[in-house]
Design brief:
Elements lengths: L2 E12 L2 E12 L3 E5 L6 H8 L7 E6 L8 H8 L2 E4 L13 H12 L3 H14 L16 H14 L4 E5 L7 H17 L3 E6 L2 H7 L2 E6 L2 E7 H6 L4 H9 L1 H12 L1
Amino acid sequence: MNAAITVTNAFVRFGELTAVNGVSLAVPEGTCFGIVGESGSGKTTLMRAILGLQKLDEGEIRIAGRVLGTDRAGLKERASIIQPIFQDPAASLSPRCRIGTLMDEVGTVLKEPRDGTRQRLNDILRKLGINPDVADKYPHEISGGQARRVAIARALLMRSTIIVADEPTAGLDVSVQGDLLNLLQELRKTERVTMVVISHNLAVVRLIAENAVVMKKGSVVESGDVETLFKSPQHPYTRELIDSWPDVIRTATHNQQR
């Protein structure tokens, strides 16, 4: 299986702080890959490096087999392949523009007629369970769950093949969390996209990912398929994380076996 993302011996330093410390990983194409760790573990900095928003001090990142630059041309090329869903998706939407106007910008980037973009947008929104009328609203007029679905719609509208979701369930009600995770799983299969889910919530990764890495203080301390990682953790830090979420892990395991 080809790798959608390959990170090799990556380092990111901020002065004396090494935020990403020699990380290597490979995300298989068409899978969901989890990056787990507490706040300060380096997972978000790694995500920014993958997205081209943070330069590496050492190492290499390949997207779909290619090393892409962090200049304007490189970021434009990267955006056609990989799209983020940020932890606060509403904040990534301009408050001055209606959602439909923001989506029209995607069509401009793709050099697609506006009517074609809007038709694709309507189809995607319906698939995501949102009334296309949301395009007439401003970001502050929609809920957190709707904002995340709009962010997913924008990623799919770009025809990207990789989606990176940072804490996708943060701030959502439990019932909405479950719906969103089911939606991400369904989209991964129907749209044939690769997903990277970055979270401190072990239940999210346990439910949605096939493979994962555990990060602590900028380093990967353990990696492997999710079943093995959660049933037989080898590193003390991984066991510590699991022990701190016992009910959550037990519930996730039970739900997955039903």
